[in-house]
Amino acid sequence: MLLPGKTAKAVMVFTLNNDKPVRVTFEDPEFNVIGVKNYNVADKLK
Predict the structure, then answer these.
(1) Contact 21, 41 (CB under 8 A)
(2) How do strand 33-39 and strand 22-27 relate by DSSP bridges?
(3) pLDDT tens track of the chain, all 46 residues?
(4) Do 34 and 27 form a contact (C-beta atoms < 8 A)?
(5) DSSP alpha helices (H): ranges in 1-46?
(6) Which secondary-structure segment (H or E) carries 31?
(7) 20: phi then psi, degrees, rounded to nearest 5
């Protein structure tokens, strides 16, 4: 559990099969969405 106002770093590795945009959704322990981040994979490959 992360306390309010605190931050944590994390790393996750995925293998993608294409260069389409990826959306990552962050949820709390009760599965409520607490954040969404979109990554444009094609831009990162250039």
Answers:
(1) yes
(2) antiparallel
(3) 778 889 888 888 988 898 899 999 989 889 999 999 999 988 777 6
(4) yes
(5) 41-45
(6) none
(7) -75, 155
